Amino acid sequence: QVRLVESGGDFVQPGGSLKLACNTSGFTFSRFPMNWVRQAPGKGLECIADITTKGDGTAYIPSVKGRFTISRDNAKNMLYLDMNNLKLEDTGEYYCARGGCHTRDYKGQGTQVTVSS
After folding, report:
1. How many CB atoms lie within 10 A of CB 62?
2. What integer is the mean pLDDT of 15-38?
């Protein structure tokens, strides 16, 4: 069965950095594009970044572009999200999901990121 387990969420001050990780199993990771989805408090799910199967193509929403970096290690079946210069509005639950932003089918249970001074 498809399993996606996120980790790395934490409480951080504005301007800080975090690295999220997603451990995947139950499917051939290298055959699927992957994405990170965020849910801010009181809002819906928002796909913020996705990555091609080989990791040679990435896309970001404007609000995180230049600050966040999505990457993958196909040998380890791992997906990552490096987050720098975090802002208050980055607070939310972050989910790892299988597929591209528009073809997402499975997502994990999420990891909480709280940006606050």
Report:
1. 6
2. 98
